[in-house]
């Protein structure tokens, strides 16, 4: 089976090479046959990768420990579910998973667009095939997941780290991979547009949904990572500016910029160079992120370990990407001339340009901070690190600016806003925000960054409500229906816009949650049996430590009685779990009490069974649940924006005929 | 066309200056030097007062904890060089004899003082795929 | 985002991997349809047989066999799609072309342009765009839409010449070539101006940004 797997990988390499050659030759010679054959080969490669995936999963399921990868990440006792999902648990398998996903997505993208964008297809196939060739090459010569033991295989596997045996760890990597891999599609279409000279906005339309879906999965992956860090790692926070966290954030930032910037190109034929740059940069950052986390270039909690050969392969690939992509941009610069120039700084176009800049700068800052240790070591010999204080100090103001833009940009007019426009649009939201600020100051809120954040959240929320209200009124006038039907019809008719507004609302709520960090409380106590400790309005008491066992693991559970303002709330059970064969790596089971206003978060890192004492970390995280809730709203909004053209046709109904109808 | 080139040039200049300024301000505070124990102990005086991330291994049987407190005293070594360390607070699960650790803190004449939540310890067994260092406030 | 090509292994082994994803293809619609229908049926039959043969063995075997058959079918389709175009050259040209682009491309662009018009009108109703700018934007979009609809309804650029010529031959042979030539002979358009819809594209354009016909180089 292992040799079948290796053979399949090599076959896939050959097939993609053919697909690339046939497509390019076919495009240049105008030979439809060659192009069709190339596309066929592209589909074939996807089929073969499916077989290869089936082979590795089968190896896991049948406990085939002659394959090193299987032996490393599985064992006899592991639940079936985790055996299957170990496919992407380690480095080699995750690369194969990447190739598999990209082949599937690529096939889908090519199939859907084969008639609408026929001229782009050959180069889309060629670009994606090129990327695949790199990853397959890396697997075949260096990190083959099907590699076997040369000597007698061990009888049992090492097993998946128990820290990874939970639902988040199953969903989080695939979600991120889908996000990363998905960004290759817009890149391929963008490059195809450049190469064929079709630099109008047709390629943008082709990739809009791909970009949105990939962005959604990136957001999901990042948020799941946050939830996992919060619930499983047990340090009381959700984001540590760890290199792998940053690796996921970087393409998210530029993808967000891209999603917005394309609107300007579609509407006014401007920012073409920006859009090309953003799509290339987003793809580049997905590769760079992969490189960062796999080559050991930046040591981190997540790093897969030092690997020079890998680092070199990635570096060459990234240089090729940059030279090739930006080379074509430069070559096609005359075709990327904007139809109009910027007329006024107080216009929606200008707001979008500002948005692009600020997100790009944010990405550069995060990149700088993440690569700083490597850079400093290379330049000065001393390895210097920057920690969360650096990132927080710079990213907080940037986040606030982005939040402000979220409110300002939709209100500005195209081309130029007059004073009348501005007054009309901004009056109520600004008044509301000021009122909220005054309220908070009166309540005694003194943390300036959080206070400003609250004010901006109020401002943006007000702008969104105003947009819904005004849009509803416009539609009500046009259709003659009641306000509710009009608003629903409005959202369904202007899905991208209003879905986007709902996403913004989700972002506002997430920022509300982030702002809560300014009021966090965190203390550590050593409690004897029956001893109490107080943190703000909470009191905790050690009611003992118990030991139980369920066959797979031994559980040491602390019983902590919790009081709020003197009133008894209940008992919480922070714990430590010791999995069989992994007793050296116990997991920390955090106890969390969640309300809309705050979380009470308890960790029991150490204990003494003899005298029933425990060390207890108590953290109060105000407003943190608004992050998760806000994310849910974000998903809802994205879903609405993604709905296909014909959905809800029945609700779109009657609009008088002076407006254009499809 | 010339106006465009000038605009691009000015933008690039501004960005480069900003980056340089950022680099300077970051270097002057807040950064930590990542050093191994033996690198520091060659000339301990030179490192006094600097923010360090000290890498080494916990010396066997050296972990002492004052009873009924969270105060720890232990020794860290690497390639033969040893340094005394003190810390008050919670230690991660993986902190034990022979653990590979990275300690955030400052060195002075009496030894290395670890910052709150500054103990990061790796699993004593082989490097895991996704979980290497563990520690509160990673 | 609709169906996904390629399939992850799943329990039961029913749903034939090949079924709805396969585009009809190859020599003539009917023949192509039959071929992949047969393949789908064959695959399902083989998988059913496989399930029966492996009854009594652990479920892993059942699933493995089903998955193996399904993925083999996928690979077979892939090989077919790769080799067929090379072997049967004229098989694939089924899509309707108008000028340099497919009908599907024009249809889609028309729909998107009309949607843009609606969005611009909404922006104007929300007071996000001045009347002057609105007129300019909508005017441009409307002429583009008109050009597209003309292309779609007329069957392609150059249709006018065809009609003129046909008309002329029906009316009288002698006059035909001259009048056809005369009616078709319009003043040579300025470089960059689209002969079809009149939009100004700039000197280095290869395709008209309003209606999509080739400009600049020989059409």
Strand content of chain B: 35-45%
- Low-confidence segments of chain B, given as residue ranges, are 125-138
Note the run of SSEs of chain B as H and E: HEHEEEEEEE
What CATH architecture of the largest domain in chain B do you see? Answer: Beta Barrel
Mean pLDDT of chain A: 88
Overall shape of chain B: elongated
Helix content of chain B: 10-25%
| Individual helix count of chain A | 20
Total number of strands of chain A: 11
What features would you describe in this structure?
The complex is a heterotrimer of chains A (662), B (138) and C (219). Chain A has 662 residues and is α+β, with helices and mostly antiparallel strands. Chain A has helices spanning 2-29, 32-61, 68-73, 80-85, 91-112, 121-141, 167-182, 184-196, 202-233, 243-268, 272-295, 308-331, 348-380, 388-408, 419-443, 448-479, 483-493, 495-515, 625-642, 649-652; strands spanning 383-385, 521-527, 532-535, 538-549, 553-564, 567-572, 575-579, 587-589, 591-594, 598-608, 613-622. In chain A, a hairpin with a 3-residue loop joins strand 9 (591-594) and strand 10. In chain A, helix 1 (2-29) runs antiparallel to helix 6 (121-141) and helix 9 runs antiparallel to helix 19. Helices cover 23% and strands 39% of the residues of chain B. In chain B, helix 2 (37-41) links the parallel strand 1 (32-36) and strand 2. Mean pLDDT of chain C is 69; it is low at 1-29 and 174-188. In chain C, helix 1 (29-53) runs antiparallel to helix 2 and helix 3 runs antiparallel to helix 4 (131-154). In chain C, strands 1-2 form a two-stranded antiparallel sheet. Helix content of chain C is 57%, strand content 2%. Chain C has 219 residues and is mainly α. Chain C has six helices and two strands. At the A-C interface, helix 2, helix 5, helix 9, helix 10 and helix 15 of A face helix 2, strand 2, helix 3 and helix 4 of C.
